[in-house]
Every structure is written in structure tokens, then in C-alpha cells.
Write a structure and sequence with these properties.
By secondary structure, this protein is α/β, with parallel strands linked by helices. The chain is built from 18 helices and 13 strands. Strand 3, helix 4 and strand 4 form a beta-alpha-beta unit.
């Protein structure tokens, strides 16, 4: 059975008498403290329920104490942790260390978009030696793993296999780190990307300040949906629209595509979801690796600062080591430059929609609603970026691209988001939300670890530089962390906390 078929069958099982007395085992599942993303957890829970497991889903933003307490009270056979944003990785390490400290020995399952076998092997498994730690690659594979954990003979084989794989991953991690060619941050800045700013052709935006878009037309947003990630959510891997003609996947892909569009029709016709956005443009110049935003075009008063990191790993000798600050004219140049910011949401109303589906034990529609809302949010971000390029900022008014070219990013400018590879510090969202007054203007809130809620939301910065591109900071050294903390006026420990996944040391 394909994953969507399995999820659909869960509804029947939930309404049957057999479902109330599962015999495979009990699993406590939770999205960790500070994180609100749970599509993957919902999918895994539904699949495991179909295999006879009793699932105790604690929901989102669940503190460690609650997870351990529920595991004890329910005599759980294993714990499953989920998370999407990078701070969740550290929270998972904390939960694992508490399991060890409190003498637990039950298996710990790790999953979520930012998790990986390597991170699990290097950071999580070493702090929980009493029990087995397993990284789940996909929902379909989780059922086989959990059934093996409930069989004494298969469990030992699995333990031996996983621990061997994790040791190999740790050795590979150490080898890769030692082979990387690092340069000090001072040297990295000497290798920055350079621009002739007198010839840069900077365009002043059509307005300075913010503009709010509320109740934006979902029909227009729908036209900008990139459907390929939607199918990946359902473990139907293929590019859209080709997947609809795939000899193996076409029937199931067509079914979920039809169901998604039927739900979209209902959402639009009944106004079940609301789309809000705020876009802002600000006078800006770079100062070192940071970007100053000014209260007006006289540029006398600094209204906000976005703090940036810089690459420190040399890939090849002539390759520049990038920072977002490279894409904004230095203050010392005397050139007036600008930067944009945005926040969009298509998740207002999603909680109520999901609640109604849950009341009917319909996991399939719950997951479908979240997946569709996420696709709408990404489409809204894409649509607003197009509007920015052609109208609101207007630096590419003649742009004429196909849908595929837009999906592939074949346009001028980028929109990096805090928390992603080029801009890994989630705390920068606080500045972004402040200058946009994003919570008031869109209804998006930030959790204590800077996850956005509702989850169907996207935020970031706009850069118009014609040679700007996406990149990854990857690993940074202690000298840059110390410098970054000083510039941002926080402790080194605080900087290390938020950038733990990027530290070389």
C-alpha cells in the first residue's frame, strides 16, 4: 500500500473496536518544546497505529518533563521525538540526556526535516547510552523498525546494526571535519564577494516602510503552487506534473492531487483559510558583515541591524567566502542601497479546520489540510516575491518567466529566511518581525525558539543584487562566534546555543 492508502485506512481502524485494544506496543510521540511542526509526526503516528501500536500523541511544543512523565505513566515501549527547526535538535539532545539521567532505557526515535542520521549519531546517541537511539528516515520504514524493537531477537540485531552504523557516521564526521580547509574570519572577509557599486544599477523601491495585504485572494496564490514537495510529503517522490504519468506512481499521485485540489476548492469557496502578508522596504547599507537599516533615506538613524555570518570553508582557492552583507552596498561607499523584508501566512483558520477533521478521526484530511496550507504559504511567498520584483520594488519590471522558471528561481534576487543554511540564526526573526510589526499585520506569532505559528507561514529578507544567490554557511569556527556575539551584544554561550549545529568545535 502507498502511504496515502495507509493513512486513509487509519480512520476505519480508529472507529473499530479492534483499534481500542492494540497489541503491538505503546509509543509516546511529541513535537519538542518550542516547535510547532507536526505533519511528519502525524503521518508516522497514523502509520504505526495501522500496525497495531497505541499512539499517545502529546502534540506540539511539549517540554521534556511532560514527555518523560507520560512515558512513565503509560508504561511506554518507546518515545518518538519530532521537530523541524534547528533549535529542536538541541532540545532532542536535552531530552536524550534527561532519559539517561533519570535511568530510562526504552528506545528513542528521532525524526523531522532538520534531523539526520549524522546529527543523531554525533549529538544524540552519545548522551543516551542506556537505550537505543534510532533516526527515522520515513514513515513507511518506521513501522518495521518499531516492530523489530518489540521482538527480543530482532531487537538485538537492530541494536547491533544501528550502533555500528552510528559509529561509522561519527568516524566519517570526524574525518570530514579534519579535512576541511578553514580560514580565520579575518581572512574570510578578505575573500568576500566584491561588487563595483558605482555600476550596480540600484533601484529605489516604489515606497519605503511597510505595506499590508490582508485576505489576499487564494485563487491567485493557488496558481503559484509548486506541487513537487507536496508529493514528497506523501512519500510519492517525483517531479510534478511528470509524476502524474509515472508508470508506478501515477494512480496514487493522481488521487492525492485530486483530493488536494478538491480540498482547495472547498477552502476557497467557504473561505476556510485566510492569507495575510506584510512587505517592507528600508534604506540599508552594510557595515562589515552586518546590514544596517535606517529610519529614512537620510540614513542618520539606525533603525535595526541584521547580523550575518560568513563562510569560512575554502572550497577552491578563487571561490569567494560569502555573507549576505556582500549583496548590500557598504556604508563607506556612499551608495544608497535598500533591502526588503516580508512575512506571509496562509494558516489563519487552519487549527479549526484540522480540529474538525480530528473529531471525525480523519487523519488523511488532517494531514492533507496541513500539507495544502504549507504549499499555499510557499506559493504566497513566491507570488509576493514576483510582485516585489516587478512592481513594489520594481527592479525587474520586464520580467517574463514561465511557471517552471519561477519555481527554479531563474529570476534576479533572493529571499533568504532566518533559520535556513545561509542565515542559520533563528533569533534574527525577532528583528524581522519587529520592523514589519508582523504579528499584528499577519497574525503570525513566534514561539520561544522562533518557530512561526501558524505553521503555514514564511518570512525572510529580499535582496535585489543581480548576482545574489543562495548559499550555505555550513561550519564556522570559534573566532567567528566570538566576533558575532560581540557585534550582537550577546554572550558567546548564547550565540553557541542558537548556532550549535554550525559549530566546528
Amino acid at each position: 500500500m502507498f502511504l496515502p492508502q495507509v493513512i486513509k485506512s487509519a480512520r476505519v481502524m480508529k472507529k473499530s473496536a479492534a483499534y481500542s485494544t492494540p497489541g503491538a506496543g505503546t509509543i509516546v510521540m511529541a513535537t519538542v518544546k518550542g516547535d510547532v511542526h507536526d505533519i511528519g509526526k502525524d503521518i508516522v503516528g497514523a502509520v504505526l497505529a495501522c500496525h497495531g501500536f497505541k499512539i499517545i500523541d502529546l502534540g506540539v511544543m511539549v517540554p521534556c518533563e511532560k514527555i518523560l512523565q507520560e512515558a512513565k505513566q503509560n508504561n511506554a515501549d518507546m518515545i518518538g521525538l519530532s521537530g523541524l527547526i534547528t533549535p529542536s535538535l538541541d532540545e532532542m539532545v536535552h531530552v536524550a540526556s534527561e532519559l539517561q539521567r533519570q535511568g530510562f532505557s526504552l528506545p528513542l526515535l528521532i525524526g523531522g526535516a532538520t534531523t539526520s542520521p549524522a546529527h543523531t549519531a554525533v549529538k544524540i546517541e552519545p548522551v543516551y547510552k542506556n537505550g537505543l537511539v534510532i533516526h527515522g528516515q520515513d514513515a513507511s520504514g518506521c513501522a518495521a523498525v518499531c516492530r523489530s524493537l518489540m521482538d527480543p531477537e530482532l531487537k538485538q540485531d537492530l541494536i547491533n546494526k544501528v550502533r555500528k552504523e552510528f559509529e561509522e557516521l561519527r568516524q566519517e564526521h570526524l574525518s570530514r571535519r579534519s579535512s576541511q580547509s578553514f580560514v580565520p574570519i579575518k581572512k574570510a572577509r578578505e575573500k568576500a564577494f566584491m561588487t563595483d557599486w558605482e555600476q550596480a544599477g540600484i533601484t529605489k523601491p516604489s515606497f519605503l516602510g511597510i505595506k499590508v495585504f490582508q485576505n489576499f485572494d487564494l485563487t491567485l496564490i493557488r496558481k503559484r503552487i509548486d506541487w513537487s514537495p507536496f508529493f514528497i510529503t506523501w512519500e510519492l517522490k517525483g517531479k510534478f506534473p511528470q509524476i502524474l504519468k509515472d508508470p508506478v506512481l501515477n494512480a496514487e499521485a493522481s488521487r492525492v492531487y485530486h483530493d488536494a485540489n478538491a480540498l482547495l476548492d472547498e477552502i476557497i469557496n467557504k473561505k476556510l483559510l485566510k492569507a495575510n502578508a506584510v512587505v517592507g522596504f528600508f534604506p540599508a547599507n552594510s557595515v562589515g558583515d552586518d546590514i544596517e537599516l535606517y529610519s529614512d533615506d537620510d540614513r542618520q538613524n539606525v533603525a535595526a541591524i541584521f547580523y550575518n555570518l560568513r563562510q569560512q570553508i575554502i572550497v577552491w582557492e578563487d571561490h569567494p567566502l560569502l555573507s549576505h552583507a556582500d549583496y548590500v552596498a557598504p556604508r563607506s561607499s556612499g551608495v544608497k542601497d535598500y533591502i526588503g523584508a516580508f512575512a506571509v501566512s496562509t494558516g489563519i483558520g487552519l487549527d479549526e479546520l484540522v480540529k474538525n477533521f480530528k473529531a471525525d478521526h480523519d487523519d488523511y484530511k488532517c494531514i492533507m489540510a496541513k500539507a495544502v496550507a504549507d504549499r499555499l504559504a510557499e506559493a504566497f511567498a513566491e507570488l509576493m516575491h514576483e510582485k516585489v520584483r516587478k512592481e513594489l520594488w520594481g527592479y525587474a519590471p520586464q520580467e517574463d518567466l514561465t511557471d517552471e522558471q519561477i519555481i527554479l528561481g531563474h529570476y534576479r534576487g533572493i529571499r533568504p529566511a532566518p533559520g535556513y543554511p545561509a542565515y542559520p540564526d533563528h533569533t534574527e526573526k525577532a528583528t524581522l518581525f519587529k520592523i514589519l510589526d508582523a504579528t499584528k499585520n499577519t497574525g503570525i506569532n513566534l514561539t520561544e525558539t522562533f518557530a512561526m505559528f501558524p505553521t503555514a507561514a514564511v518570512s525572510g529578507l529580499y535582496f535585489a543584487h543581480p548576482q545574489s544567490k543562495y548559499f550555505a554557511i555550513n561550519t564556522i569556527d570559534q573566532d567567528q562566534i566570538t566576533d558575532y556575539a560581540k557585534r550582537k551584544k550577546i554572550s558567546v554561550q548564547e550565540a553557541e546555543k542558537w548556532l550549535g549545529s554550525n559549530l566546528r568545535y
